[in-house]
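Table 4 source record.
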Amino acid sequence: MSDIITLLPDHVANQIAAGEVVQRPASVVKELLENAIDAKASKVQLIIKEAGKVLIQVIDDGIGMSETDARMAFERHATSKINTANDLFALHTKGFRGEALASIAAVAKVELLTRRSADELATKLTLSGSEVVGQEPTVGPVGSALSVSNLFFNVPARRNFLKSNTVELRHIIDEFHRVALAHPDIAFTLYQGGNEIFDLPVDNLRKRIGHIFGNKIDDKLVPVQEKTPVVEIQGFVLKPAAAKRTRGQQFFFVNNRFIKSPFLHHAVMQAFEGLIGPGTYPGYFLFMTLDPKSIDINIHPTKTEVKFEEEQSLYAILKSSIKHSLGMFQISPTLDFERDPNLDLPYKSNTVSPPAPRVEVDRSFNPFKEKAVQKFSSKVAPAWEGLYQDTAHEQESSPSLMSKMNFGEDLTHGVNKIFQIMNRFVISSSGSALLIVDQSKAHQRILYEQFLANFTQQNAVSQQLLFPVVYPLEGLQIGLYKEFEEILVAIGFQLSIENKTELHIKAIPSFCQEKEISTLLDELFSELAGDTPKDSFSQSDILAKSLSKSLCIKTGKPLKVEEQQQLLDDLFACKDPQVSPFNQQIFVSLTKEELEQKFSL
């Protein structure tokens, strides 16, 4: 029998390696930006077309490469960062795996223009699918300009798995944020389709955060600083009042490298315990400096997962340092609600005698006089009467389970045949069956169909605001707003962009309250930036789903009997009351026979 094990050709091995390194356009952005930083650049430009599917270009003013180095950089396991295995435990640079450029070139068309300050001419290198198409000397500035076009042109299956431009751009901006936050001493610019999205000058960390997420975030930042033999921590956390329902604005950096760590995130959540509401998440920008020998950053191809040597100590230090900062800046609660303020002593209590208490008595009051008795009873009786009425109302609106299970009656006959359990399900009878409805999913379906009708009929009702509400927009949100602006106007919003990054809202739909605007837009932009399959839905459909999820009745909200009845009436007036807009079942029904069978012997 002949031998069956053979060595893979280089181009196949490179494509397999590319599967680990290059997952989407954002992966290319990350590698190229990190290479520019390792090249000691002071200014980096990122140019994107079609969310990186057509073009990704990174231009830097770093040290550049020689003609030989330019060619060697695209070989597998070629790197200038390490020479021995021990160097892996003393890393201070980023691109050390030596597979990034080779993997990128294996699945795209690449052009590199680079020159060192000591060279008179630059080197231009062109590759396509790992093959060198051309190399020639040319004129160019000091530094490097690397262009990656037609990503996955030779791997169509991988290209088909890419999401919509909105989703891919979100991932690119996420990577851009991570690199830009870690290096406020470097100027960064980002262009998408010829439009400038970010222009970040050299500054300190606090101002860099403001340039990225809006200047209004500056008032919400609480400094965190701690230095121990184990770790040095510095950065900022957002005030508890700025906590959001989404997990944005959460950044951990170890030795200036962005990482993801559920373990450390749990430490932050513990530090905020009791300060933020359930279902909300704090924002943080935390930088940790450790001995490179105490961490392993080579456990994952993307180098975003880190293994710590003393993770329990790191957990405790991080938690205590955040608690200390929140307390030092008087963010932690200091009110004692059991304290009687009348017992507080003035500052000069040691020199001033307390005044004698004064008691005033109505000496003319006679409880046995007829008028006094009437006056007393008129004050007391309504209270007892109201108490009785409240109790009676509770008994009427919250009847026992047995009194509600009236089979053979239609659910619309009287309010005493409907009730709520667990603040989540609405129970009623329909014909000869017991109906159990999920209130949140039911309201999603109702709102979804209402929004689609508004989009089509253009008859939304708006309520004008006395003063415009200003909502700061981040980079991706600007693009999302421009994409969905027409539909937002159709449902009743009146808004415009001022000062490039501020959304001024002058009128809101009738279904929205002014105090809910910021929360609504936070959730809406988060939903719109989610992993929505490309070309699956129209813009109006995507927006209707996002709004219905943001504005629906949430699980845990108690409903009055009238509200429960209205919810069911509206649900069964919908075209498709069976499933929510997200294809989830809204209600289940149990027939009399099914219930009797469960109790049969």
